[in-house]
Amino acid sequence: MKMREDYTCPLELVHDMIKGKWKPIILWRLRLGKTSLSKLEQDIQGITQKMLLQHLKELMEYGFVEKQTYSGYPLHVEYYLSDPMGKEIIEALRIMQHIGITYLEKNGKAEELLKKHIIPD
Amino acid sequence: MKMREDYTCPLELVHDMIKGKWKPIILWRLRLGKTSLSKLEQDIQGITQKMLLQHLKELMEYGFVEKQTYSGYPLHVEYYLSDPMGKEIIEALRIMQHIGITYLEKNGKAEELLKKHIIPD
DNA sequence: CTGGATCCCGAATGATACTG
DNA sequence: CAGTATCATTCGGGATCCAG
């Protein structure tokens, strides 16, 4: 994810930070608490390990996500939202979630999409 | 802006709706009230009329923005945020704006960017 | 061996320049 | 302004590497 040199507004910077295809869902899933890479891979349907790692890495660089590595066996790493940046972005995503649900209900496509929606609100 | 067929979550749908390079800033500017195309073009530095029109069109298709055409002379068109969808997304953008400002302050790059930031909070 | 992480490359998409 | 061409980025597959 390449960042621009200039932004007219701080908002644009943040928008770029979360603009990847999988970033919103990853954050949304992380809102439920710490998890491992493999658990994330299971919960987010369609994502590959590679994409997951790439997006997690970027989210860590910007400061939304942090990770903790436990040495020992079996090897274990946990990812979680940072405080306050990670927690704050969730509030923005929550609004988007609300808009999305309303939009789908209005257009009668709610069931179709809400059924798949495994990550709870 | 091509939309996907499936989304795992309504949030992703909305994220895609506003994912273009200029969409957040256009919405942010519209928050200040109705305006014409040319006024938008002036206020959003670096945008071309073509990009502006393309993104406005998409924002109208999704329902964030509406336009009103005044017949008469000179010909006049005004764009504005829809209610409630347009107004709601502003709340999400406001959070991003806040995160962005905090981030820039922490990294000592606040002045540099905040100076350019012509659109008021 | 297992789970976590990186590299290389082609295909799809987005942004912008160019043109009528 | 719309249509097309061009250029930069992003996505995703697959191989591969690294560390307990």
From TrEMBL, chains A, B:
InterPro entries: HTH_HxlR (IPR002577), WH-like_DNA-bd_sf (IPR036388), WH_DNA-bd_sf (IPR036390). Keywords: DNA-binding, Transcription, Transcription regulation. Gene3D superfamilies: Winged helix-like DNA-binding domain superfamily/Winged helix DNA-binding domain (1.10.10.10). It holds the Pfam family HxlR. Signal peptide: none annotated. Residues 9-108 form the HTH hxlR-type domain. This is Helix-turn-helix transcriptional regulator. It comes from Amedibacillus hominis.
